[in-house]
Amino acid sequence: MKRNSKMTSILRSMGKHSQQQKSSMFTKDLQQNEENLKQQIGSTKDVIFRHFHISFDDASSLEALLVITDGLVEEDAIRNNILDPLTSEPLTASKEARLQQVENKISIFNTITNETDLEKSVLQVLKGSALLLVDGFHEGLLLKVAGYELRAVEEPETERAVRGAHDGFNESSSINISLLRRRIPHPSLQFETIQIGEYSQRDVTIGYVKDIADPKLIERVRKRLNQINVDEINHSGKIEEAIEDHPFSIFPTIGNTERPDKASALLMEGRVVLIVDGDPVSLYTPFLFLESMHSVEDYTSRPYYTTFLRGLRFISMLVSIFLPAIYIAILNFHKVMIPSDMLVPIMEGRETVPFPLIMEVLLILLMFEGVREAGVRLPQQVGSALSIVGALIFGQVAVQAGIVSAPTTIVVSIAYITSFINNSVTGAISLLRIGFIIAASFFGGYGLIIAMLGLLTHMVSLTSVGVPYMAPISPFYYQDWKDSIIRVPQRWLKKRAKSIPHKRSTRIKSLPKTGDK
Amino acid sequence: MFRILSCILFLCLLTGCWNSQELNDSALVHGVGLDKGSNGKIKFSTEIIKPGESSGGEGGTTGESIILEYEADTLIEGARESIRGIKRRVYFDHNRIWVISEELAKEDFIGYLDLSRRDQMFRLNSYIFITEGDPIDILETPTLYEDLSSTEIVSALDQTQYVAGYTPVKLYDLFRLMEGPIPNAYIPIIHTKEVNEQVITSLGGTAVINNRRMIGKLNNEESVGLNVLLDRATGGYVDVEVNGDKVSVEINNSKTELKPTLQGNKLKAHIEVTIDGTLADNTSKNPVNEQWLNQVQEEVNKKTKRQIHSTLDTLQQELKTDITGIGMETYRKYPEKWKHVQDQWNDIFTKAEISVKVNTDINHQGLINKSMERHNERPHNNPYKFK
């Protein structure tokens, strides 16, 4: 395999003093093997070489070496499953079958792989396996005894739901996979794992439901992941940026979630989920723009309320992006559009402000962004101080001092608050807002419309791993509008969304008749 | 690519902010007054919002207005000249009212309003008035609720549905009338009056425009009649006397049909008014019954008829001008014949025989049947309820 040669090269670079090809295989001499291993691994402190003797009933004994990485293996397992069975009583075996006997003795407790390649063994040791070498045999036994501290399965803080499952992904991809498997115990749910990163060797798992997901989509994701050739992948964000179609866009075209219930629902829609080991955030694709207005609880509450909430999110997104820009355009260019009754308060507010309107708006906006950014990083104890500065000094004193005007503060605050309603695109909204403010301050309503056309042109050109980002708006899929800005009752959502490529379109075969007695 | 993008970016910066004008460098005009000046000039007065001190968080804004006056030959000259005094660029975007002095209105004043249509800055949905005195007095009237007297006048006009005597005319209404088949128009008259030592503005009467100039006016009563004729009296009330007692009827709905018949140069017109009303006020002791209501209806009919006739009389005999809508109706009915009578229409209208018929229907008598009367009332704790 291609990947093998890559690993070889890593190891070659790891062991600077190694004697080239000679050391890549285990020899029969345990001393020699240990030396070779130490050359490969270097003098790192966390790899432990433990010598012991395996005695046989003919009073002879064999020297054995156990290589483990400290902290990555379960000490109990080593003691009870390896050392204890081998050393507590002599083994019975002929000289030829001794390794076989050793293997048999401990295979009850462990998953064993025979490995002759020294370099591969080293990698496995560093990932948490134990390597058992017995003198006189040119094969090493790799035992799966990995065990390290993990966070429990908790509810993710960012995606809380009142009604719904309260478990969340954690840092271990095997636990994450098991969480998904528990929800879809069907052979069609497939997981493929590949290692990414020459140094980090990160497990990235592609999950999909074979009967539903589009094979072309899976192949595309697989191909892109295989093409990643980097030193290190440490979190899902790097994978996201590596495989997305438009790395230069301000819109995210790959979704992410920490909720296994959401991930399993996504899988059932025909999407591909990527689980990155060491990161509780799993990625999924295709991700559509309208999904940023959806929430996990949309499907557990009544459809009417969901529709209302989605409308609210949609409007708040528009308000958040356009309100300050429209405010500037109207005040500076189209004064006729100011409602007559609001004219006097607005003029009074503006009269004492020493800055041009654009400066005033940007000043407040940047201060808000600053307060938010500071609040995210601050420990909770200091947080209250921040809110005093933010709310009191900013909200009141600045207006009273006439540095900013009350109407402008209100407009920017509304835009700012509404940007948090659509959590997943808050960043894009913030940038767009500033962009539109600048466009409006230069060219008024005309600039606003030109910028909006530019934005829409960009948005319809986006794809998420080959799937149109703006579907079902563009391309227009009428049937998918049932679950976009509105949500109709589940009963009417018999087919899978056309926006997401899939092989199996019927999702509800039949339901009980309504009102049947 | 990068080069092109950066070029576009810098080009944006080069433009400056085209047409951008900060709000605190502009003066927004809310009302315009036009008066006759010396040497054939016009006096151009403006009411401008004067932003007060920033009110902070405490609320309670006290809006004031600046009123300035200039003499100029044309409106645009006045607008531009006034910048000298106002010291800011003047915007007429928010101009809500035009007040024209009677003196100016009696000349060919429509010409001065040309700018209001030619320039995109003006609002054609602003209201136009004629005042007997100085327009400045109207603009300077202290306000009751709003910040500016112009705003207050406009908000008063929104309430016209409760008073039949108002005939609000917007600028585009005026132009539409003047460019219609009969170049006559009507403009409400506004004046100031003193109530409880407070000067307030009040609408009353209607100015009649014939051939681009004001030739006379209708008083309050006649304005009501005009409103009914124009089918614009959607509300209001009529008070009549029935057997010496005063009774008021609130008009819920009123519909006027004009049926002109043109024979040669002779015009006959029949006007039919249908009024739906509610009994609003009954000062008499009469119990409300069908017979009595019929009497009331009869009185309302008579009174409305009288009002319409007095309006028509003034228009026909005194002013010799048709602003009633009969002309319009005739034009619609006889588009071919109209060409021959158009020039002499005011004559034809003056000599027209006009009959009026009013049908009042009081279909609701309010919440009580009887008016308060001591001996009619039973005690509240009457133990013999069925007696």
Instruction: Provide the helix percentage of chain A.
Output: 40-55%
Total count of helical runs of at least 4 residues of chain B: 12
The helicity of chain B comes to 25-40%
Structural domains of chain A: how many: 3
State which percent range the strand residues of chain B make up: 25-35%
Largest sheet of chain A: 5 strands, antiparallel
The topology string of helices and strands of chain B comes to HEEEHEEHHEHHHEEEHEEEHHHHE
Order of helices and strands of chain A: HHEEHHEHEEHEEHHEHEEHHHHHHEE
Structural description of this entry:
The complex is a heterodimer of chains A (517) and B (387). Helices cover 45% and strands 13% of the residues of chain A. Chain A contains 15 helices and 12 strands. In chain A, the strands form 3 sheets. In chain A, strands 1-2-4-5-3 form a 5-stranded antiparallel sheet, with helices on both faces. In chain A, strands 6-7-9-10-8 form a 5-stranded antiparallel sheet, sandwiched between helices. Chain A has a two-stranded antiparallel sheet with strand order 11-12. In chain A, α10 (303-332) packs across α15. Chain A is elongated and about 105 Å long. Chain B has 387 residues and is α/β, with parallel strands linked by helices. In chain B, 31% of the residues lie in helices and 33% in strands. In chain B, the strands form 2 sheets. In chain B, strands 1, 2, 3, 4, 5, 6, 7, 8 and 9 form a 9-stranded mixed sheet that branches. Chain B has a 4-stranded mixed sheet with strand order 10-11-12-13, sandwiched between helices. In chain B, 36% of the residues are buried. Residues 54-62 of chain B have low confidence and may be disordered.
